[in-house]
Amino acid sequence: MKRLFRILTGLVLVFSTSDSQLIPTSNCPINWYPFGNNCYKFNVYPLRIYDEAAKACEAQGAGLLSVNSAQEHQFIDTTLQRIDRDRSFWYTSGYRDEKHIKWSGDGTVSRDDVMFWASPDDLQGFSKFIVYKYSASLQKYAWGATDGREAYRFICEIPITETQRLLQENRDFTYGSNLTDPTLAPRGPRFTMHPINMVLTNRSHLPSIECEATGIPQPRYVWHRTDVTGSEEVIGKSEFYTISNGKLTFNRIDERRDAGIYHCEASNMFGSVRSAPSKITFGSLAQFPNVAPGVNRVALYQGTYLNCNPPTHKPAVSYQWMKGTSFLIQALNSYFFLSADGNLYFSEVQQNDEGNYHCIVTLKAFPGDTLATDQPPTETSLDIKLDVLGDTAALYPPQIHDDFPAVFPKSPRLGQKITIECLAYGRTPLRYRWSKSGNGNLPSKAYTQNFDRVLVIPNVQFTDEGTYTCHVQGRTQTESKDFLLTINAKPYFIYPLKDLIVDENSDITWRCEGIASPRASYVWYKNARLITSGTDGIEIYSNVLKIKNLQKRIHDGMYSCEATNIHGSSVSSAQLKVLSFKPSFAKNPLPRTILAANNGNLTIPCIPEAAPVPTISWLKNGGKLSLPITDGNQKGAQLLSNGYLKIVGVSMVDAGLYTCVAANQNGESMSTGNVTVVGGVTIVTQLFPEMRVNKNDTVFIECQVSYDIFRVDLVLVWKFNGRIIDFTQDFFYEKSTRMGISGLFIHFIDYYHSGVYECVAMSTITQSSISTNVIVQGPPGMPGNVYRIKGSETTRSVTIKWTEPPDHGSQIQQYNIEARTINNPKWRPVATNLSDFNVLIPGNLDSDKRQYTVTGLVPFNSYQFRVVARNRFPQLGEYSKPSEYIQLKPDVPVVSVQNVGGGGGSEGVLTISWRLLAEEERCGPNIGYNVYWRKNGTTEEFQMKTLLETDHMFQKMVSGNSVSYTVNLNSDKLFYLPYEVKIGVFNKYGRGPNSTSTVVYSSEGIPLLRPTNVNGWEINSTALWVTWDPLPNTRDAIKGVIQGFEINVEDANDANRKSVTAYHYGYMEGNNVIGLEPNTDYWVTVQIFNTAGESNPSEKQLLGTCLNPPLLYPEFVTIHSHGPNSVYVEWRGVSTGLFEETLRGYKI
Predict the structure, then answer these.
(1) Which of 121, 272, 621, 750 is the most buried (most CB within 10 A)?
(2) Which string of b and e fits 636-647 if b means at least 16 CB within 10 Å?
(3) Which domains are present in the chain?
């Protein structure tokens, strides 16, 4: 009995900031503040954007704050000044509407009064949604405005008259039973894992989808399939399927049989729930057409693109490109770009871009879906030929392509990693930059890739929406282009449906609050079967379900809400448990002995469990008490509205046996305690020695004192760790009452609130006190003093040691270690998910110390390390402070050289290029490179050249972070031959790894052949078409590859007149020359050129242009009606002269 007494009187209540225990205090639920006829909840965590904040309040039966008076505005300001030390923004339900403020929380409209605003700028701004913000100039909270996309704190509001209906929502599954541990109480099933969408192919081997649910007793599983015709069937075990618990495996896949929508149904004795749907589709990839695409011709240094034109496929493909036999690596080239749309773009076409390209497509699933194979089908296109034509290069300004900026995926969804691409045509170099409307700052998590042409936003959120601008800087001009990013979202629930344990004959309302873009539609299920409005008295209005006059036999069960939009479906389920039983004091009996002070006050709680809510009456010594119902301020015995008995001014005659009688339609129960009246000061409450609470909860510590109000002047003092709490300075603490009993509230409790709390009742002659130790639980604290174990440094590892962090009430489960170098300040994980066992010190000499040897480091670097811990809470703990820099010992290089390539150069050389090792890759001093080369396809020994970075000549080879080394081949016969090249790296301590081998061609030689049989004809008075015989485009004939042809034109009658030269790139047998004079004869010669130079000119050929075009133009043009679809045009004609070509006709 003594233990039961302590359970009742040693009452410490814990209230979560995210899911409050709704027990009234001052007529408002706990964590809610009263003002006027309303209750207000100040939600500190988690932060929400506007739409989420509104739904978070609605899920609690409330609405976002509506401000209807200056007094209410002042209350909000006063409260925020007391509780918000961070000076945060707080969402309300207000939004601008012309010259008024509309409050969506209660539908009212108010004037846009300047007195409520933080500043004129806030009043006159364009942002829509009203927030409370702190004004340093006004030294108070006032209105500001925002676009609703940022996540802030928010304020909920609910009328006091509606708070009582929330009390039943606080019950758990132990209510009405003999169980006290909610985790052991029987309950219906609920899913912890839903099946995913899956794409099957003919390469899929035993693919499977899976669901998982919890419940007591353990649920059973059934799988359902809805085929393309809409008919649903239950899937049983067969030769086609294997079912193991919640896992469905496809043994023999067949598109006609297996394609469709699947869902998993979990059931136990309390009902059934259905999972979110899983869409099973079949992927396919056809072959590219066997007809080669047409030739793509483009002028030198102009922009263009190659279209992949992928074959028929479903659902999606990824793209790669090859030129010849080599994959294109766009990270190495700033002028071409492989877009996620499949096209290969060139900002400018250069001479060496000419050639045959191949597009490679690989089947893939849409983002969020799974492709059930590790070897997806792949197809390669036929040659896509690019011919580079044209004359002398022009200076093209940057011009952003019409298809850019473009976002991928094309319909970005919440939580995805998205990319925004930008590509401009124009002469390189082109420099790209991104900004976002507003303050111009990009999201902090965003970064750029691919020469800044791609903006990456991981885990994209609604707050990332807005207008992004791509800026391209050319040599002389700049171009910018905007892109509006909008985020879609598959429905998700910020507040899932909550289990309801409610009284029979009562009413309930469930709100299914899903966030979705576009807006979701809703359907409801009971025990996995679709229900509609009118079923068993159920009313359904979209996402709201109401049931009046609940009946256990009809309405008990599992209910699910499914929210669906074009991006998919999400399901939230909860159990409705309807109760009806007689009152019980099994868990909360009255204390056997109750002490009260003479002339003091006494409150006796009466907390039975019952359904429906019982009526409470009291007996004294077996006789019924006629008690008035009061607010607790009258003299004598009285009944509080919550059923408690309160005696104001206790006297000796109040001693005796008091019995609480609880009765409802199912019967009555009673519990009795003996009140003894004593003198002096008596603390009625007894507290547990220790109590555990979670960070950010609100705690109530009860301290009921009974004393003689006529003889004793009592002072009630609260102490924390022996220090008196100053309630005027520390706003987290509040002395108040809960259900008529005084105590201490600790709001938004944090780790530093852990400690001993003592309630001291002091008078002039005596004092009495009670105390308890409050332990705040949460993610781990900061690991202490990270340092190296002296002498543990090697070339690639070091052992670090740290002090175990405060576990905050939950055992440390894992550690993560991150590192950065003095040359790279970005923190990178070097050891993750280390169990506490893995980091124990052998022998356990220091019980609070942990250590771990970090391996895989790069020698000769100065590293800093930091450590973070994790316990049962989902969030990581606090990162430690960085260690001092730890210098590793030098060693041979461990990183190979990257970006090996080359080619080109003057005749008789082999040019080899590579990227310099970064500072943190050098592993030691005195870096050098071994350059290896040999003819490709041979087994002869590599020739080698050793280069030291300290050499004066080496510095001349460096441009930026690239090196270009030229090998003199000393032979006129080694032109344009493939060489196998590789680069080795070494330092003071020895050789490191070689790079992978790459094929590089030696430089070309001057072409030996020259065009023959040059001929042609006039095109018009200023242009000629010149032809020549086909030439063999071979290594021996051309000493390389023909890059183009040079056509030279010289006036046959005046050698001093300026000649005309036309350059045409690519292989051809004729082309034009423009910009000539009419009626003029020209000597024409043609030359071949490659990267080494030009051939000798061909023999001269005499060609002439036409006479002049007509010098006169038609006059007196008249138009006459001719018919319903024609007109008659009449004009005066022209005649041609001696130096004009014969007239051929007219063009209208």
Answers:
(1) 272
(2) ebbbbeebbbbb
(3) 33-162 (3.10.100.10), 182-282 (2.60.40.10), 284-478 (2.60.40.10), 489-579 (2.60.40.10), 784-885 (2.60.40.10), 901-1001 (2.60.40.10), 1015-1104 (2.60.40.10)
